[in-house]
Amino acid sequence: MSIRRLIRPIRIAFFVLFAVSFALTLGSPALRAQSVPCLVGHGAGPNGWIREDDTPVGRLLRDADALHNDPSPQVTELYRNVLTAAENLPDVDTCKARAFFYAALYFRGSDAEKGLALEQRSVAIDENVLPAGHPRRILDLRDLAGFYAFAHQPAQAERLYQQVVSLLDTMQGLTSLERMFTFMTVADFYEHQKNFSKAEALYRNAVDASASLQPSLRSTALMARSGLARVLGEEGKQDEAHALLNEPTPPILPPPVPGTSVPRPDLSAPMAEIAQAAQYASGRNFQGAEASYLRAIAALEKMNHPAATRYLIATLDGLGELYRQQHRDADSEAVLLRAFRLWEAAANAPGTKRAAPPDLQTLLLIYKDEGRLGEIEPLYTRALEIEEQLPEKNDFVVTAMLTDLAYIYCQERKYEAALPLYQRVLAIHKAKWGPDDPKLASTLDQYAEVLEKLNRPDEAAALRARSSRLTSSAHN
User: Fold this and answer.
1) Which of 101, 215, 293, 362 sits 20 to 30 Å CA-CA off 108?
2) What is the CATH number for 433?
3) Is the pTM of this model over 0.85?
4) Is 339 within 8 Å of 313 (Cβ atoms)?
5) 392 Ramachandran zone, left/alpha/beta (phi>0; psi -120 to 50)
6) Burial (CB count within 10 angstroms: exposed 0-12, middle 13-18, buried 19+), residue 83
7) Domain range holding 423?
C-alpha cells in the first residue's frame, strides 16, 4: 500500500515561500505560477494582467495547483489535459502562453527538455503578441534563462541573464517588486555558479529596489537582504552579513482583517528573526536557527492578532521540521502538535483569513517510525472535518487527506475502516470529472487492494479491469 505525498523535503527556508505570499497576487507572473491559474494580457490589474479562472485552461490549472505540484500520476494527467486544452487556443491568446509556462514549471522536474520546450513556446507567443516595450517581455527572458539554468545549460542562461540586467536599466513599466525579484533571480544564478562578487552586486540592486515597495509588500525585502547576507557569508564577510540582518527594518504590517478593528501588528522583528533562522539553517547552524525561530515565536505570541497567528503557525511548522532534520522527534512532535491546535482554533474564526494547515505528514512519519500511527488518526479526522466545513472547500485537499487516512488504516490492517474512505474519494472524483476519467485509475487500484485484503477478489478484479481500461484510454 502506498501513500501519495508521504515524504516531503525539509523546508527549513520556508520563510522564503511564506514571505512571498504577500507578493503572489501582485508580483511577477513567474512567482505567481503556483497560485494564479491563468493570466491574460488585458484588463485591470498589475501591469494589465488579470485572472481568468473560469476558462477551461484556467480551471484545469487551478485544479492542478491545488495538489501543490506533487509528481503524482493524477497531477501529471491534469497538466497533460492543460496542454491539450491550451493547444485548442489560438496563438494570439496570451492565456495559451501562460498555460505553457505553468505546465513547463511542472514538467521540468521530471523532463527538463520538455519544460524548456514549453517555455520556449510560451516566450514565442508573447514575442508575437506583445509590444516590444511590454514588461512581460523582460520577464520572459528571465524565465527562459531560468529554464536553461535548470536544464544545465549555464552558458545560454548567462547570455539571457546578461540581456535582462542590461534591460533593467531602461525598461519602464516593471514594478519595484518585479525589479527586485528579477535582480534576485540573476543573483541566485551567479551564486550557484560560485561567482559571489557578481551575486553580491545584484543582491545589492535587489535591496535597493525593495526600498520602493509599498508597505504591504515590505516583508519581501527581507528576502533580498537574506540573499545578500548569504553571499556575504560565502565571501567571508560574516560580520557584515549579521549586521545586515540585524538592521532595523521598516514596519511590516499584514493586510487588514475584514470585519475587525484590531490594530495590525508590526511583523518586522519576527520576520527578521525568521530570515535569520533560514540563514543559519542553510549553513547547518541548527543551534542558531533554533534560537532565531524561538525569538520569532515569542514575538508573535505577544501580538494576539489573527495575522500574527498565521505566521506563528507557519513558524512552528518550520521549527518542527528543523527538529525532525536533527532527529529530535519528540521536540518536533510537540511543536507540530501545537501548530495543529492553533490552526484548529483559528480555522473557523469569523473574519479571518484561513491559515494553511500545519505539516501533518511530518507527524505521520514520526508516528509511523515509532509504531504509533493510531495516534494521528484523530488529527486527520479533525482536519477533514475542518476542511469539509469550509464554504469553499478544496476537494483536492479533502481527497488527499482521505487517502492519507486510508493509508493509516491499511497500515494498521483496519481494511474495513479504509473502504468508506476510498468510496468517498471515488465519489468526489466521479462528481468532478465523471465516471470515465483516467484520474480515477490510481484510486481504483488502491481500493482494489483493500478489497483483496478482505477476500473479495471478484470485486477487486472488476475495479482493476476498470482501472486498466481508464489507463489505456488515457494513452490512446
Assistant:
1) 362
2) 1.25.40.10
3) no
4) yes
5) beta
6) middle
7) 371-476
